[in-house]
Amino acid sequence: FKKLSAKRTAARGKDNEEGVVESEDYGLLAVEEAGEANQLKFMPEKNINSPLDKARVFFERARKVAETNNFDYAIDMYLEGLRCAPDAVEDGHIPLCELALHRRGKGGKKPSMVERVKRLRGKTALEQMLNAEYLFAKDPDHLPYAEAMLKAAVAGGCKKTASWIANLVFQTNNAAEKPSLRTYVLLKDSYAALGEFDKALAACRCATKLKPEDGELADEFKRLSAELTVARGKYDRDGDFRQSIKD
């Protein structure tokens, strides 16, 4: 129960950014199972305007069917909603993660080989992200699915989603018995692409601890330190945050 509670807390983004970077005390979370979009029977009403409004119809339907323990269909509904609003972290990604953890606790099955082969690809970054999230929903303990989701979110410009899933991956890797150097490097690059240089620097620091003799990582650490200084300088210049935003 403590583990599940910790993961749900992480899913809700309780850690502030300082805590994520400075304490380097990260944990995990995840997601599970779904079906075919072309078999969905539920469709949103026609008078809904914004993508988020349309997505929320799916999310609400997902919550209702989840209450009947129809977890797989609920996951389908969440993913259909996220197709409409890919960056809906609070409304879509987080509840889906919580649903996945609950489903896993109820003995939900992991993705089959056929599902893995089918879902580990996609024509667009959005499709790749949703496919990875589908697999992660079915096997929330398998970090590579979350990493695939992160890569696709960054590639597709889903910054809120990318930042959120990156934090979860960071938590998971730090909590692992044997943290992965490759995962820290992925996090470093992902955070840097998002302009979150404080977290990129933290990930790079973790990577250098695992491979202190790596000169390339040492150079990256210096470069990211400089990037962070420049970024902070833009916000601190003349104490005018609004001017920095305009620039």
From TrEMBL:
SUPFAM superfamilies: TPR-like. This is Uncharacterized protein.
